[in-house]
Structures are given as structure tokens and as C-alpha cells.
Design brief:
mainly alpha
Length: 98
């Protein structure tokens, strides 16, 4: 179960960096709570990374549970898909689009 948690964690970091970049270029965050936190990019990054870190640690402590394993793979799929999207945008356009 280590692999999906690593994918989710790294994908979250990529998503955080990409969100901050896009926001600085005029993009917007669709999550209302996280959008409020973007008034302070540091606060946004700390909260986003901390929340996912806590979830990853909790899933790791419950790694024998089938539900935790499913949740880990779902998180890996979501953050993996976001990272793939960012990679495709960079490959096609040379940068992330707003």
C-alpha cells in the first residue's frame, strides 16, 4: 500500500504548486474553502499539504483495512490524474493554461 500513498502525496504537492502558479496568473480555485485560503499562498500550501499528510498517515496506520487500501488507491488515482493533466498541458502548451 506504500505506492498509492506516495503517488497521492507527491500528486498533492504537484497540485499545490500548480494551483499557486495558476492562481498567480489569474486562475481560480474552485473549492470555496481553499479559495479563501489563497489570500495567503503560504497558508494555502500549509493547509493543503498538512491535510493530505494527515490523511496519508492515517491511511498508512490502517493499511491492513480493505477500506483504507481502496481509499489510498482512489486518492492516488485522483492526484495522479491531476498530475497527468498538468504534464499534458505543459507538453502541449509549454506551460500551464489558465
Amino acid at each position: 500500500m506504500k505506492k498509492p500513498l506516495i503517488i497521492a502525496y507527491l500528486g498533492n504537492i504537484i497540485d499545490t504548486v500548480a494551483t499557486l502558479y495558476l492562481y498567480s496568473k489569474g486562475g481560480r480555485e474552485l473549492n470555496p474553502f481553499m479559495a479563501m485560503l489563497l489570500q495567503s499562498p503560504w497558508m494555502f500550501a500549509v493547509v493543503k499539504i498538512s491535510v493530505v499528510t494527515i490523511i496519508v498517515i492515517r491511511l498508512w496506520t490502517c493499511r491492513e483495512s480493505k477500506n483504507a487500501q481502496i481509499a489510498a488507491w482512489v486518492a492516488a488515482a485522483i492526484f495522479g490524474a491531476l498530475s497527468l493533466y498538468y504534464g499534458v498541458m505543459i507538453a502541449i502548451y509549454g506551460f500551464l493554461c489558465v
